[in-house]
Amino acid sequence: MLLMHPTISPDLQALLARAMFPDPQRTAHTFQQYHQRTDWQVFAWQIRGKIVCAAGLQVEGHSAEILHIGTDPLCSGQGYGRALLQAVIRELNLMQVRADTDDSSIGFYRKLGFTDTEIPNPWNTRRYRCTLKVSPGGVSSCTGTPLWLGLTLPAPRRRRG
Asked: Which GO terms describe its molecular function (predicted)?
C-alpha cells in the first residue's frame, strides 16, 4: 500500500540511506532537505504494517526526479520498488520521471521501461540518466508497457539463511 508523505522515521531514513553516498554529514544534509524543501517528497510502500520500500522524489508539476529509492534487503527483488514507483506515478499523474543511476541499479529502471543514456562521471564508474515518459492512461510511451501491472503484491517471502 502506498503511503504519501510518511513521517521520516529512523527506519524510513535507513531505507533511503541505502541509495545515498555513505557520508554521515551528506546524509544528514540530505534529510534536512527532505524536511525543508516542499518539492522534495517522500513516499513509502507498506506491507502488513511494515514499510518495505521508500523513495524520495523531487516533484515539479507532472515531472519528477527520483533522488533516492531503497528497499529492505530482506524484501529485495519482490517488486516493491516497482510497485512504489508505479503507484507514485499514478497518484501524482506524472508524465515524465528521471533518475541518475549506476551499473548496480540500471536493470531495475530498464525493467520499468525507462530509456537510458550514459552520462559523464568524474569518479571512474559508469552512470546513466534514465527517463520514463508516460502517456495518458499510464503506458510508457517508450515501450508501450502498461505501468500499473503488479500493484497487488504478496506479503514478503521469508528468505532462508
From this structure: acyltransferase activity, transferring groups other than amino-acyl groups
